[in-house]
Design brief:
Blueprint lengths: L5 H10 L1 E4 L5 H18 L10 E2 L10 E5 L1 H4 L1 H9 L2 H9 L3 E9 L9 E4 L13 E6 L11 E2 L24 H4 L8 E2 L7 E5 L4 E3 L10 E8 L18 E3 L26 H6 L3
């Protein structure tokens, strides 16, 4: 074990999540926030989304409102170093084993005074794999208070069956529908607030979401998904994305491990998918 103790690992396996306060050093936070400021400055030069910067409706050059930086490791060397060689890899190794692959990264902003909600969902249906080892580690770059719409998780929901993330008519929405929500204990939600540098970890099967950000502060959450090396993607949705599938610890595994439960498949939204915000808000 590199950074966790046995109790923390057992908690993750039982509950499906972790919150580790001030895990990321101040030095890393300074470098990451400088990179964030770079993209905010770039957003002031455009009225619309670009390959590196996705903006909310209502974004203007004078009043930027960023939604997401997709595939952060592609767009800035600090993000690349942090995601592929930084402190999160020890945490991933502790939970996934010696052989770890990088899958993808993104920075979700949750802009101040209205940053959009993320409806209740599970992750793995967006990018199915042969097994359910994939997990996402989120790093809070600012202090996150209850008013800033921290991520909420439903403890133990990673042990429930997977949902189709479709409405009652079978249309993909990227969110649990009202009927499926009755099968989830929303009264047990844990809101993962914490000081800058805190990290969240959640299983790819965890039911999670967040409310709109009504505070006067933006809430940037830098997210990285890692997999055990024996978890192979079952779609080609990430084909051609730099670094996706790269071994970041240990060795590659040629023979995938298959979990018994099948995973619902997403639509083929290559070229038409920008973010979960856009999918759930119906503008993707």
């Amino acid at each position: 074990m590199k950074v966790l103790n046995a109790e923390q690992k057992a908690f993750y396996e039982d509950q499906g999540y972790l919150l580790l306060e001030q895990f990321v050093s101040n030095e890393w936070l300074d470098r990451l926030n400088q990179a964030v400021d770079h993209f905010i400055d770039l957003s002031r030069q455009t009225d619309d989304s670009t390959a590196a910067i996705l903006v909310e409706p209502g974004h203007t050059r004078a009043n930027p409102r960023l939604r997401r930086i997709p595939h952060t490791v592609i767009h800035h060397p600090v993000f690349e170093e942090f995601g592929l060689r930084g402190p999160l890899l020890d945490l991933a190794e502790d939970l996934l084993g010696a052989d770890v692959c990088f899958h993808h990264s993104k920075l979700n902003f949750k802009w101040s005074q209205g940053g959009e909600e993320v409806k209740w969902h599970q992750d793995i249906q967006f990018w199915p794999h042969t097994n359910y080892s994939p997990m996402t580690i989120g790093a809070y770059l600012n202090d996150v208070t209850p008013e800033m719409a921290p991520m909420g998780v439903i403890p133990g929901s990673h042990k429930q069956p997977l949902f189709n993330l479709a409405d009652e008519q079978g249309q993909w929405t990227g969110a649990l529908n009202d009927h499926d929500l009755t099968r989830v204990n929303l009264d047990s939600v844990v809101w993962l607030q914490g000081p800058a540098g805190s990290v969240t970890v959640h299983s790819c099967r965890m039911v999670h979401g967040s409310a709109p950000n009504k505070s006067f502060e933006m809430r940037p959450l830098l997210l990285h998904t890692y997999t055990a090396a024996d978890a192979h993607p079952t779609t080609n949705l990430m084909e051609g994305i730099p670094f996706s599938g790269q071994v970041v610890r240990g060795h590659a595994c040629e023979n995938p491990r298959h979990d018994a439960e099948p995973c619902p498949m997403p639509p083929d939204f290559r070229g038409n998918y920008s973010s979960i915000f856009a999918v759930q808000q119906g503008d993707a």
